[in-house]
Write a structure and sequence with these properties.
This protein has 189 residues and is of the alpha/beta class. The protein has a domain of 130 residues: Rossmann fold (3-Layer(aba) Sandwich), CATH 3.40.50. The chain is 38% helix and 23% strand. Helix 4 links the parallel strand 4 and strand 5. Helix 1 packs parallel to helix 2, helix 1 packs parallel to helix 6 and helix 5 packs across helix 6.
Length: 189
């Protein structure tokens, strides 16, 4: 069994999508949700799918006791950052070397870094007059959005696009590409 942990800070649309995608897969399973905010999104998903939810603040991810308990209890093969906004501490990166990936709503290296998430990214893309945007799935390292790229998917930015319409295009790319990346990693870790 290929076990996935999902970290998020928001509503959890990508977490819900991954759980739905893999719910009948006998080889890949979401084991746990981790959030730094006890918001309705992750709480609802945890309840709906009967998946454990851990609420833990960003700096606590570096705690050796928590990391050891997390590793022993859930034994994740992959940790997916899907809307998780905090920088992952070095201790966690080292504990799960090569097993943490991030989903970013732009074509990195453009529009990455601290504070570049969600509508902030889409607004920046539109203000820059970009003709394309997209998503990047990458490995996580000690810097925001600078890990090795696994996959990028593009979409056209139309002249009439708004933050909302661009966000919709990006969500469609995220919901199709992220499960595919995970499936490939599960087969060829």
């Amino acid at each position: 069994m290929y076990r996935i942990a999902i970290l998020g800070s928001g509503k959890g649309s990508n977490a819900r999508n991954l759980i739905e995608h893999f719910k009948d897969n006998p080889h890949i399973q979401v084991q746990v949700l981790v959030s730094d905010k006890p918001r309705r999104g992750f709480l609802d998903i945890s309840y709906d799918y009967r998946i454990n939810l851990e609420i833990i603040k960003g700096p606590e991810l570096a705690d050796a006791k928590w990391l050891n308990r997390f590793r022993m209890k859930y034994r994740p093969d992959l940790i997916v950052l899907a809307g998780y906004l905090k920088l992952i501490p070095t201790e966690m990166i080292q504990a799960f070397q090569g097993k943490i990936i991030n989903l970013h709503p732009s074509l990195l290296p453009k529009f990455g870094g601290k504070g570049m998430y969600g509508s902030n990214v889409h607004q920046a893309v539109l203000q820059a007059g970009e003709t394309e945007s997209g998503i990047t799935v990458h490995y996580v390292n000690e810097q925001y959005d600078q890990g090795q790229v696994i996959r990028q998917e593009k979409c056209t930015v139309e002249p009439g696009d708004t933050v909302e319409s661009l966000a919709h295009k990006i969500h469609q790319l995220e919901h199709s590409a992220l499960p595919e990346v995970i499936q490939k990693l599960a087969v060829h870790p």
